[in-house]
Amino acid sequence: MKIIFASAHDVDADSWIKPLQALVPQADIQQWSDDGSAIGAELAVVWNPPRDIFLRETGLQAVFNLGAGVDALFRLEGLNDDVPIVRLEDAGMSVQMAEYATYALLRASRQFDRYEGLQKQGIWEPLPDIQRGKWPVGVMGMGLMGARVAQTLASLDYPVAGWSRSGKDLPGIECFAGPAQLPAFLARTRVLINTLPLTSETHGILCRDTLGRLLPEAHLINVGRGDHLVEEDLLALLDSGHIHGATLDVFNQEPLPQGHAFWTHPRITVTPHVAAASLRETSIAQVAANINCYLRGEPLTGVVVRGRGY
Ligand code: NAP
Ligand code: GLV
């Protein structure tokens, strides 16, 4: 059985292929080559694969994505509707996401950004104590990433709410569900953390209308996908003062183009899509376990529901 490996995670593909091969010894795993020939693969293990992978490897029976979000795969031509797409389930990402969100929240709420400025001026000036009640956090998407983020911030005694498609019941977290409850969720939120998957329903969901409903002096933390955000709407709301700051890990175009307004905006923090990385060892272990299930004819875990897009 042949497996094609095509990943932009790491230039050193061998460092992924070798340990995967060791865990799936019966497979012949080959690295994608740009020479145009198909290897006749039955399975593909991919992250941001070349645009023509599904046009070239036409016999694929399943595709294993080395990341949580699968939106990029649906943009490629030739992906058959009946081929299962399998995503990473946590695999060490949710703890990183919780760290990232905690850092971004504390930087704003504990005013570490202001202390950095004061240090540069040599000024010793304790700022007013934090009042957690003034920093209600709202997490969009309450899946593996969002639930971990929400629980982590709730453990620090911030008022936390979550919004998802279906209702959730998590202790200490106020849960909202569906489009009908979105306005109420936004109206009680000052720090909005987006962990949604990118689908036709969530594309552009962070726009003038939704962001404008947040509490005054809001802060946006976007770790979902760049296309959730209407970038010019964020800039307008920062200009108007309704949004005080934003911490952005994902962008409409990645890498963020030189000269983009976000690079130099005084109230935007930019990171290069690193909020939660796919860790090699845990990712390979999870994919290998799933491939071995496939080989034994057992059900796979993490299969994307095509109709939902995640
Ligand atoms: P997940 O477990 O599938 O969770 C997705 C959550 O979003 C679920 O709670 C789901 O609701 C909710 N949702 C989906 N569509 C919705 C809609 N239309 N309205 C309201 N809620 C909706 O996914 P995950 O593993 O947490 O990953 C989420 C996303 O994080 C990924 O797709 C990826 O884009 C992003 N991500 C980014 C990085 C990074 O480094 N920046 C790393 C990893 C992941 P239900 O619970 O009702 O299904
Ligand atoms: C990263 O962005 C992922 O979806 O895993």
Question: Would you summarize the structure shown here?
Answer:
By secondary structure, the chain is α/β, with parallel strands linked by helices. It folds into 2 domains: 2-91 and 278-296, NAD(P)-binding Rossmann-like Domain (Rossmann fold), CATH 3.40.50.720; 93-270, Rossmann fold (3-Layer(aba) Sandwich), CATH 3.40.50.720. It has helices spanning 14-23, 53-56, 71-74, 93-109, 112-120, 144-155, 178-187, 208-211, 231-240, 261-264, 280-296; strands at residues 2-7, 28-31, 43-47, 62-65, 85-86, 137-140, 160-164, 174-177, 191-194, 218-222, 243-248, 268-270.
What does this structure look like?
By secondary structure, this protein is an alpha/beta fold. It has two domains: 2-91 and 278-296, Rossmann fold (3-Layer(aba) Sandwich); 93-270, Rossmann fold, CATH 3.40.50.720. It is built from eleven helices and twelve strands. The strands form two sheets. Strands 8-7-6-9-10-11-12 form a seven-stranded parallel β-sheet, with helices on both faces. Strands 2-1-3-4-5 form a five-stranded parallel β-sheet, covered by helices on one side. α3 links the parallel β4 (62-65) and β5. The longest helix has 17 residues, at 93-109.
